[in-house]
Amino acid sequence: MHGLRGGTGVSTLLAGLADALHALQQRVLVVDMSPDNLLGLHFNLPFVEPTGWARALVEGGDWRDAAFAVEDGLTVVPYGRLDLDGISSVEQELAACPDLWRQRIDALSAGVDWLLFDLPSHLPAHAASILRHARCDIGLQVVNVDSGCHALLQRPELRDRAQDWLLVNRYDPGRQLQRDLMQLWLHQFDALLVPQPVHEDGSVPEALASKLPIRRHAPASLAAADLDSLAVWCLTRSNPGPDEVGR
Predict the structure, then answer these.
(1) pTM for the model
(2) What per-residue confidence (pLDDT) applies to 136?
(3) Pairwise CA distance, residues 215 & 17, whole Å
(4) Where are the domains of the chain?
(5) What are the tens digits of pLDDT across the range 213-237?
(6) I need a labelling partner for 108 at 20 to 30 A (CA). Which of 63, 155, 164, 222 fits?
(7) Which residues of 177-194 are buried (b: 16+ CB within 10 A; e: fewer)?
(8) How many CB atoms lie within 10 A of CB 157?
C-alpha cells in the first residue's frame, strides 16, 4: 500500500486492514517500509524502540529479530530508527539489490497468509522493491478526495503501476467538492477504484492516540466497518471467481 502523495493515511489504513484480516482468521505480517517508522505505533510499540529491518540492514543484523508479535497470527516489522545518512544507505542498498525483499517474501510466504507493506511516497527504491520487483498481488494506491490528489491523478507518470487499485481514504460525502470529485473519478477511473472507500471518521486519530488499530479502538465506527469490508474485498481479490480473473 502506498500513497499518491504523502499524508494520505497509508499507515493508518494498513494497520486497520491488517487487524481486519487477522479478525478473519488470516495470518498477517505487516512491514513498515517508511523511515517515518510510525506503523508500529498502531500496535502499541514505543516510538523510541530503535530496532527494525532497515536498521538491521545498516548494522548487519538479522532483520527477523526486529519482528514483534502483536498476538498469535499478527506480526509487525518496524522500519527502525535511522538518521538521514542511514536512510540514504538503505535506499542505495535497495537500488543496488532490488530483489532483496522478493527473496525474503519467498522465504516467508509459506508461514503467513498476507504480507502487507507500508510504502513511502518519496523513496523510489524502497517502493520499487515491492511494487516492481516482488510478487505484489494487490497494489493499493491511497488517495484523498481533494484537489491535490485529483491534479496528481491527471499525471500518469506518478502512478507506479497501471494495475494498482485506487483506494479512497477520508471520504466525506457531506462535502459537495468530494461528491463531485468522486463522481468524476467513477467516470474516469471506474475500473481502478476499490469499491469500498474509507470514510472520514473522527475515531481514526483517536485510535492512533490510543496506539490501537481503529477496529480495536472503536469497533462500531464507520471507518472500522469500511476496513472490515475492505478486508473481505481483499480476500475476494486473492481468490477471484471466474468472472474476476485478470483484474
Answers:
(1) 0.91
(2) 82
(3) 9
(4) 2-236
(5) 999 999 999 999 999 999 999 999 8
(6) 164
(7) ebeebbeebeeeeeebbb
(8) 5
Q: Would you identify the CATH topology of the domain 2-236?
A: Rossmann fold (3.40.50)
Single-letter code of the amino acid located at 75: T
Q: How far apart are CA 121 and CA 19, in angstroms?
A: 23
